[in-house]
Amino acid sequence: MPARGNPNSLNRHYGLGVVEEKQGRTGRLTFVTVRHEISNAAGPVVEEDQIIAYRPTEVGIAPPTLPDPRSPASHERIVDVDPVLLFRYSALTFKGHRIHYDAPYATNVEHYPGLVIHGPLQATLLMNFAAVIAGQAPRRFSFRGVRPAIGPQTLLLSGTARGKGEMEMEVRASDGHVTVKATAQW
Asked: Whole-model pTM?
């Protein structure tokens, strides 16, 4: 979609892609793919496919499992996530869901054990970490949330080079479970 007027202005286009229903460990899940495209007069600047998972409200938290075994990583960073960071990220990204900043709502209404740490916040932390490691922002970055992270807590970010110009990354919660997996490419 070409930009009109100011050549530095950005056009945003959002589109609904695929809607899929699947059976997960805790019951029925609905996955919705939303396409985000941001462009200017020169063409596309950012293209993103966001897959959002929805679950019925009556579903509880999955029973406890053992953490995945940890492989040695070439790079690691510790990040403390507190309610102020969760609130600020919600405000910055216009994510108004109360599970990220309203503890009584998250625990009493949604039945989480605490505030939910945004998957995109964890991905942002990983992408910034990848840029620090490589000295430049990744050209391509993809991530997948694999388990909710509940805050406040300390997260472990790790990255391991996989061939030339690629790094496998993950976030681990303080209980040792992987919460987000990602791939950065330069």
From this structure: 0.73
Torsion 88-127-142-49 (CA) sign? positive
Q: What is the pLDDT of residues 133-167, one digit of tens each?
A: 999 999 999 999 999 999 999 999 999 998 889 99
Q: Angle of helix 119-134 relative to helix 83-93, nearest 10 degrees? A: 90
By the 10 Å C-beta count (0-12 exposed, 13-18 middle, 19+ buried), 81 is classed as buried
Phi/psi-derived region of residue 111, left when phi > 0, alpha when psi is between -120 and 50, beta in every other case: left
pLDDT tens track for 14-32: 677 788 888 877 788 888 8
CA dihedral 83, 92, 30, 38 (to 10 degrees): -160
User: Any idea how long the chain is?
Assistant: 186
Cβ proximity of 157 and 171 under 8 Å: yes
